[in-house]
Amino acid sequence: MREQTLVKILEAVKLEGEDSEALWGFNIDNPNKSYTTDKYEVICSGWLLGKKSDVVAVEIISDSLKVAKTLVNLPRPDVAERYPTLSKAGICGFSVAVEVGEMLPEGELRLDAIFSDQSSLPIASIKFQKKLPFLEQVEVDLQRSRLKLQQAQEELERVRHKFVKPEI
């Protein structure tokens, strides 16, 4: 049986350079542009290493609302090898499933690092598109077409008034 892709990742961008003093490093393993799922969810995973303060959690924000939060405490032996002198390097991973079923057909998730001092730092932005059930998709397309038609009619009316001379 073929898997149906219900969520497509349009863009996954690390927001590097926000505050190089706050992190030794980080990576977003998932999602990436090739991510597919047969559920209305996006799995966000990766690792973070704080410099001045430990990273304790990752929050996922959509339209200014916190939609998920997970602890940063999963084993990451690959990061421990890369940063052998940092004690937290072996347990700096995170993974969380973010439910997107009730969100708009196209949306954006922002991942924020939460430090032990309760400060935060945006680290990534993920833009996604959901495949809607057939009838829902038809309704969305119909609404979009109605809006385009209305805009075209308004533009036509503006242009017509420029060229039609008023009758005296």
Describe it for me?
It is built from 2 helices and 9 strands. It folds into 2 domains: 7-130, Immunoglobulins (Immunoglobulin-like, Sandwich); 132-168. With 168 residues, the chain is an alpha+beta fold. The protein has a 6-stranded antiparallel sheet with strand order 3-1-9-8-5-6, with no helix packed on it. The chain has a 3-stranded antiparallel sheet with strand order 2-4-7, with no helix packed on it. The chain has helices spanning 77-82, 134-163; strands at 7-14, 23-30, 36-37, 41-50, 55-62, 65-71, 93-99, 106-115, 120-130.
Q: How would you concisely characterize the structure shown here?
A:
By secondary structure, the chain is α+β, with helices and mostly antiparallel strands.
Measured between the Cα atoms of the first and last residue, the distance is 72 Å
Number of helices: 2
What is the CATH topology descriptor of the largest domain? Immunoglobulin-like
Portion in helices: 10-25%
Mean pLDDT over the residues: 85
Major sheet, described briefly? 6 strands, antiparallel
> What is the 3D form?
elongated
Strands of the biggest beta sheet: in what spatial order? 3-1-9-8-5-6
Descriptive terms for the model:
168 residues, alpha+beta, Immunoglobulin-like, 2 domains, six-stranded antiparallel β-sheet, three-stranded antiparallel β-sheet
List the helices and strands and how they pair.
Layout: E1 7-14, E2 23-30, E3 36-37, E4 41-50, E5 55-62, E6 65-71, H1 77-82, E7 93-99, E8 106-115, E9 120-130, H2 134-163
Antiparallel strand pairs: 1-3, 1-9, 2-4, 4-7, 5-6, 5-8, 8-9
